[in-house]
Amino acid sequence: MAYAFKFLTDDNNRYIKSFQLFLERSTEHQCMLDFVHGVLPDILASIGEGRSSLNILGVGSGAGKIDVEMLSQLRLKLPGLKVDNEVVEPSPEMMYNYKVLVSKSPNLEHVNFKWNKMTASEFENHWQEKNLTKKMDFIHMIQMLYYVADPRATVSFFRSLLNKNGKLMIILVSDKSGWGRLWKTFKADLSVGDISQCLTTGDIKSFLDASGIKYKNYQLPSQMDITECFSEGNEKGELLLDFLTEVIEFSKSAPPDLKAGVLDLLRHPDCSSEVDGKVVFNNTLEVLVLDP
């Protein structure tokens, strides 16, 4: 059954606190950076070879750490290339942090930034209302499809913006991760509102396969230390539980049987392993790179 929980993204301050803690406790950004440094440059080169400029669109770019790293790698791979980089991000705090990062980052003179403080759906409405015809060479949607009402429609719209040689890159948690097991087990209990936060790459791959859309996929092994979640009253543990369940103050608002069930599953070998006395959650991500 679905409970009358308050959704974490409805409280921007608590969401950002829990998200920052998640980043501190996980190898999330590191596994993405390994991909950005090791695999992505060749993908970008295949798009930009022989070109003088590229149009790039980041959807849900957050504070821009991964975006800026991608732009830096692109410059190393294809020096002299001009980039028109559109950013779509609804959080004013995240967008401010992104702008600060850009101001402090060297070698971005080749990039023209356009800032869109809006959600993905607001950007889609804006695009259609203005009847814009601009095409994108590379679109990335990193850990953001959880927060849209219809992920399939969102993927279809942004894929429609691609140039004939363009690529759409999606990063989500893998269906083989602890998230996949958690959501499969407790989706009916934890789903709140009209968005699809219980989403993995397995859901997107099913849609792509059924639609005959070609893509390549890459697994990004990642872990998260969730030991604090099992210390009753631990403030950071409660924030991590909020992030895992997407529920505000889950530890206090969940019925005892649901809370016990979630904690038992989080500790189960299907979700986590115990290493040196710590509970290490399987946070594995997957990258999908779609053709036009």
Write the layout of secondary structure elements.
Elements (H helix, E strand, L loop, with lengths): L11 H14 L2 H11 L1 H9 L4 E7 L5 H13 L4 E7 L3 H13 L6 E6 L3 H11 L5 E7 L8 H9 L2 E12 L4 H13 L10 H11 L3 E6 L2 E3 L9 H11 L4 H4 L2 H12 L4 E4 L2 E5 L2 E6 L2
Parallel strand pairs: 1-2, 1-4, 2-3, 4-5
Antiparallel strand pairs: 5-10, 6-10, 7-9, 8-9
Quick recap of the structure?
This protein has 292 residues and is an alpha/beta fold. 45% of the residues lie in helices and 22% in strands.
Description of the molecule:
By secondary structure, the protein is of the alpha/beta class. Helix content is 45%, strand content 22%. It is built from twelve helices and ten strands. The protein has helices at residues 12-25, 28-38, 40-48, 65-77, 92-104, 120-130, 151-159, 178-190, 201-211, 235-245, 250-253, 256-267; strands at residues 53-59, 82-88, 111-116, 136-142, 162-173, 215-220, 223-225, 272-275, 278-282, 285-290. The strands form two sheets. A seven-stranded mixed sheet has the order 3-2-1-4-5-10-6, sandwiched between helices. It has a three-stranded antiparallel sheet with strand order 7-9-8, with no helix packed on it. The longest helix is centred in the first third of the chain and has 14 residues, at 12-25. The protein is globular, with a radius of gyration of 19 Å. The chain starts with 11 loop residues before the first helix and ends with a strand. The mean pLDDT is 92.
The radius of gyration over CA amounts to: 19 Å
Percentage of residues in strands? 15-25%
Q: Report how far apart the termini are.
A: 39 Å
Which strand order spans the largest sheet, edge to edge or round the barrel? 3-2-1-4-5-10-6
Give a count of the beta strands, DSSP E runs of length 2 or more.
10
Structural class: alpha/beta
Shape: globular
SS element count, helices: 12
Q: Give the integer mean of the pLDDT values.
A: 92
Residue share in helices?
40-55%
The description of the largest β-sheet is: 7 strands, mixed
List segments where confidence is low: pLDDT < 50 over at least 5 consecutive residues: none
Helix-strand pattern, N to C?
A: HHHEHEHEHEHEHHEEHHHEEE
